[in-house]
Write a structure and sequence with these properties.
heterodimer, A: about 525 residues, alpha/beta, Nucleotidyltransferase, domain 5, Rossmann fold, 4 domains, six-stranded mixed β-sheet, 14 helices, globular, B: alpha+beta, CV3147-like, eight-stranded antiparallel β-sheet, 12 helices, 19 strands, S-Me-THD_C_sf (chain B), DUF917 domain-containing protein (chain B), S-Me-THD-like_C (chain B)
Chain lengths: ~525, ~375
């Protein structure tokens, strides 16, 4: 049996799953003290189901903690940056273009050291071990333990970054080291930025992940703890402590993965309706499509894997702006009203009209239209059928435009409607073959966490003249499969979920950047029988 | 004219548009310019009128693979080494530099070198847009020599190219750029002040900056960035006609690498499914056909832009499903002369098609 928990800004959701079935679930307000919140949620599903903590095979948690820390500039570590790329890149020192306040928080020490590879794999310059040692000693003496190492073309060959890390550890054993090759792809500045942000989160990541572990221990769950990653795969607690940025976009991913699992559909558009926004994403083979655009995190351009999500300002708490004098109108001008983008968010339960408040929201409209039955109709205003229809038509258009923007082909696609506000999505939408509301749609995100798989992604630049295309893809896929097995994947369930080839212009020999992503179900821990694996 | 931080951002936006899908994303060039701005203050750009006829003017820019340029970053010495060696060869100081091409990242390239050498950048360039090869520069079209030309790289290597044949020069420079790792700095077509005045495409830095400023300002006011951009393009006098040729979604994309070029075709469909556009590219966008009829062709500018933000999308970043507008603009008149079209017209890119100006076809979508 597996537990999935999603700690969102508003709610903490948890599910207990066995053999692909949801045995118990809960949705609770997120507490200020996360450790207690997670423990309460897990305790609730265990007591509902009467399952003993000893029967749990894994706990997977998705969290938005780290992205908030970067946006709010709090609890960030000082970072030492070791760049292995000289003589290249000296004109563009690390943190160029960063917001000043963030640079001050990170108080970086940068070392531009010889190293790096050329695109064809040659060393651009050999590693200067003495210079590296001297830098490590300076950082140690300065009390800087969070260290980011970036080497030119390391996504193609990570060997030099690993060698440098080993040398740094010799003279600075307390260092926590981020390797850029573990995070990002080609695009030096974005990858280095990602590595520095990751290093800045070192202390916070350790604290948060350990508080999750304590929460599990407090209720007697001794199963392995995992943190879900941006791409829908798992990080062990140790990996998540080391690479927190890889878990920052897991919320939308978990919703999409959960929706795919609950509906049995691998290719669809997912609409996750929360209190403030509807997150729209595209599933392909059960995994979210990745964003092709550099993600801007806290004002810094990064390139780690993030799901491609379109957030539109329409959720269950979204405000409806219409002059009350027009509530009974028999004609309504398009310009006379506006829906959102502001939302009551968690204040819906106090200020929404169906809860006795004074603010008209989309949930009130759903109640008036007879779509939902929660709250009380007593406090709701009387809207003419024209007005109600006009408001609903606007919401429909917003949703339809969103679906259209995320679709990749012209034909009609199925939509999976999930999240607490999924009632806002009508049963028929333009360009949509059918709207499916899977069972347990309101906790799809926690389901996504519970079912997360082991995964790996490998990227190489290969000359299709030197190596046959099929052989090249197989070579990269093999490297990815090996990594998945190292990450705890079950060899019987290995599956390639994505192959991407990007031809590179102005290079000889038909050079192509090949990227392959492989996943597998998690092997059950040896102490638990295989029959318990979900 | 001094270019400050905001003007650098504007220039990058405008240069990306003038890249016509090629020339590389100017993001890294922008960062480099901003880093230098922090160190030395705003960049000086002067008009050609201020220049003596016997001045020495040097076009420069980067040659190589965009993918490498985002991983093997500049050392900073490349342009300086090349320009200093040229001074030795010519036996005199360089008075000003210009971008070899305004389109894409090379539109910003000379700013850094100029600041380091303490000389101005002239408000002009050699292509008026981006082209895939060096001999497509107006200076070759007008019969000037590319040499002496100097290629340098981040590791400090320097190659001097001397040949009377500008096509051979392009081939040598291309091969050298691969040999040094896929990205190099190229100093080429050294000009006298008189030659720069007679042959360079005047006012393109100002034009790119104005186009970028128009997009930025419209975005800030939540106005239509496309309308603002077209007005700015027309106001430059260099790009007198501009408009939207298609509005839709990418439904198919084919590409392959051929002789080092990224060659392919992207298909758009309108949102109602009634109309489609095929856009051919060879690094830059070359030819657009709407419902089977040609609507624009090289050397006129053809750029795919995000339909909401008006961000230019380079051919390498075109993806299935993107919602975009295909925008066309008339090329500077100098590129439409008969002799110029032999080098940069549709036949130069293998089309059995005479050049027809974009405004003559007049296939603009109604705003």
């Amino acid at each position: 049996m597996r537990i999935g928990v999603d700690v969102g800004g508003t709610n903490t959701d948890a599910v207990l799953m066995d053999q692909g079935k949801v045995l118990a679930w809960t949705k609770q307000p997120t507490s200020a003290d996360v450790e207690t919140g997670v423990a309460d949620a897990i305790r609730s599903i265990l007591s509902q189901s009467g399952v003993s903590p000893a029967r749990i095979a894994s706990v997977t948690i998705g969290t938005t903690h780290f992205v908030n820390a970067l946006v709010e500039r709090r609890e960030l570590d000082r970072v030492g940056v070791l760049r292995l790329a000289s003589p290249s890149g000296e004109a563009l020192p690390p943190l160029t273009g960063w917001p000043r306040d963030l640079v001050e928080c990170i108080d970086r020490r940068c070392y531009l050291l010889p190293g790096g590879y050329e695109v064809d794999g040659r060393e651009m310059a050999s590693l200067d071990e003495n210079a590296l040692r001297a830098a490590a000693v300076e950082l140690r003496d300065d009390g800087v333990t969070a260290i980011a190492i970036t080497c030119a073309f390391s996504p193609i060959n990570a060997e030099m970054e690993h060698r440098a890390a080993a040398i740094v550890r010799e003279s600075h054993p307390d260092a926590t080291i981020t390797l850029s090759s573990e995070i990002g792809r080609i695009g030096f500045i974005e990858r280095e930025n990602s590595a520095i942000l990751n290093a800045a989160l070192t202390t916070l990541a350790r604290r948060v992940v350990r508080s999750f572990a304590r929460a599990c221990a407090a209720i007697g769950v001794s199963a392995p703890l995992y943190i879900s990653q941006n791409d829908g795969t798992l990080a062990s607690a140790t990996q998540a402590e080391a690479y927190p940025v890889m878990t920052m976009g897991s919320g939308p991913t978990n919703s999409m993965r959960g929706a795919a699992f609950l509906s049995g559909l691998g290719d669809a558009i997912v609409m996750d309706v929360g209190g403030t926004t509807t997150d729209i994403g595209a599933l392909s083979s059960g995994y979210p499509r990745e964003s092709a655009i550099s993600a801007d995190i806290g004002g810094v351009r990064t390139n780690f894997r993030m799901p491609d999500v379109l957030a539109i300002g329409l959720g269950g708490g979204t405000r409806v702006h219409l002059d009350p004098a027009l509530y009974g109108a028999t004609e309504l001008d398009e310009a006379a009203f506006r829906i959102g983008p502001d939302s009551l968010g968690y204040r819906l339960a106090q200020e929404g009209m169906l809860f006795g408040g004074n603010t008209l929201t989309t949930s009130d409209l759903a109640r008036l239209a007879g779509i939902v039955s929660f709250g009380s109709a007593d406090g709701l205003p009387v809207l003419s059928s024209t007005v109600l229809a006009a408001l609903q038509a606007r919401m429909r258009t917003m949703l339809e435009d969103g679906v259209d923007r995320m679709k990749t082909a012209r034909g009609a696609v199925p939509v999976l409607a999930v999240g607490g506000g999924n009632f806002l999505i009508p049963d028929d939408l333009r360009g949509v073959s059918q709207v499916i509301r899977p069972p347990h749609a309101e906790v799809a995100n926690a389901v996504g966490a519970a079912i997360a798989q082991a995964g790996a992604q490998v990227e190489r630049v290969i000359s299709y003249e030197a190596m046959d295309r099929e052989a090249a893809i197989e070579h990269v896929a093999q490297l990815a499969r090996e990594q998945v097995l190292t990450n705890g994947g079950d060899p019987a369930t290995l599956a390639t979920v994505d192959i991407e080839e990007t031809p590179l212009s102005y290079l000889p020999g038909r050079a192509v950047q090949v990227r392959v992503r492989v996943v597998a179900d998690l092997l059950p821990p040896p102490s638990i029988g295989a029959s318990h694996a979900a | 004219m001094l270019l400050d931080r905001q003007a650098i951002g504007d220039l990058a936006l405008g240069a990306a548009f003038l890249g016509s899908g090629g020339g590389g994303d100017p993001y890294y060039a922008t960062l480099l310019a901003e880093a230098e701005l922090e160190r030395r203050g705003p960049f000086e750009v002067i008009g050609l009128d201020a220049l003596a006829d016997d001045a020495l003017v040097v076009p420069c820019g980067w040659i190589g693979a965009p993918t490498v340029s985002v991983e093997k970053l500049p050392n900073g010495r490349e342009a300086i080494d090349g320009l200093r060696r040229l001074e030795e060869i010519m036996g005199r100081r360089i008075d000003a530099v210009i971008p070899i091409e305004i389109g894409g990242s090379n539109g910003l390239a000379p700013l850094f070198a100029a600041a380091r050498l303490g000389i101005p950048v002239l408000d002009c360039d050699g292509m008026g847009r981006a082209f895939p090869e060096s001999q497509m520069a107006i200076f070759n079209i007008r019969g000037l020599s590319a040499c002496p030309s100097i290629l340098t790289d981040a590791s400090g290597s320097l190659s001097l190219i001397e040949t009377d044949d500008n096509l051979a020069h392009e081939r040598l420079a291309r091969a050298l750029s691969v040999a040094v790792g896929g990205i190099a700095h190229l100093v080429e077509y050294p000009l006298t002040g008189r030659e720069a005045k007679d042959h360079a495409i005047h006012g393109t830095i100002t034009a790119a900056r104005d186009v970028g400023a128009a997009i930025r300002t419209a975005r800030g006011r939540s106005e239509d960035p496309f309308a603002a951009m077209f007005a700015a393009l027309e106001a430059t006098g260099l790009y007198p006609h501009a408009g939207v040729l298609f509005d839709g979604k990418i439904t198919d994309i084919e590409r392959e690498t051929k002789d080092g070029f990224s060659v392919g075709r992207v298909v758009f469909e309108s949102f109602d499914g009634a109309s489609r556009m095929e856009l051919d590219f060879q690094n830059e966008n070359l030819m657009a056909r709407r419902d089977g009829a040609v609507v624009a062709m090289v050397p006129d500018i053809l750029t795919v832009m995000d339909r909401e933000t008006a961000d230019s999308i380079t051919t390498e970043r075109l993806k299935y499903g993107q919602r975009a507008k295909v925008v066309g603009a008339a090329a500077p008149a100098i590129l439409r002369e008969e002799r110029a079209l032999e080098f940069v017209g549709p036949r130069a890119f293998g089309y059995a098609q005479d050049y027809i100006p974009i405004e003559e076809i007049g296939a603009w979508l109604k705003p």
